[in-house]
Amino acid sequence: VNHFDVIIPAVQKQNNGYDCGLFSIAFMTEFCFNGFNRTSRVVFEEKEMRSHLVSCLTEKKIIPFPKQTKKKLKLSKVATSTFQVSCFCPCGQADVVQDMVGCEFVSKKHECQTWYHKKCSKLKKVSKKMYCPDH
Fold it and tell me: Were both Cys, which of 28, 29, 66, 125 would link to 45 (CB 3.0–4.6 Å)?
């Protein structure tokens, strides 16, 4: 089974229930300009974020959001975490992208473990069961 790792960095948390879009744009901008560095922490100047975004949209030019200086930096105590996403289909895309179908071949010695996305499937239907090209 192939897989890829998803890294969820420890990041600054918003202090309300309505700035999630603003923080998403700020972090994506930071990522696009500076990439992802597992060891560095970015903390934005929350009071300046909204006006900065409005300015970027008005000027039609996205630039990095204002960040706190090292002296004022308050780091999140949440650790960076990683999890794996499985890729059973030979196309290499994640299994969570769409419905998966599997070969239903079973013998006394072997059960096929081949899975495909529906759109990638080359399974043939034989009496209501699906079989991969190997079976």
Answer: 66
Please check whether residues 75 and 94 belong to one and the same domain.
Answer: no
pTM above 0.70, yes or no: no
Q: H-helix or E-strand containing 126? A: strand 124-126
For the cut 60, the answer to whether the pLDDT of residue 76 exceeds it is no
Count structural domains, the chain.
Answer: 2
Look over the chain and give the mean of its residue pLDDT values, rounded to a whole number: 81
55, 102: one domain = no
Q: Quick count: other Cβ atoms within 10 Å of Cβ 131? A: 16
Instruction: Measure Cα distances from 19 to 34, 47, 75, 86, 111 in Å.
Output: 22, 11, 19, 32, 50
Phi, psi at 7, each rounded to 5°: -100, 125
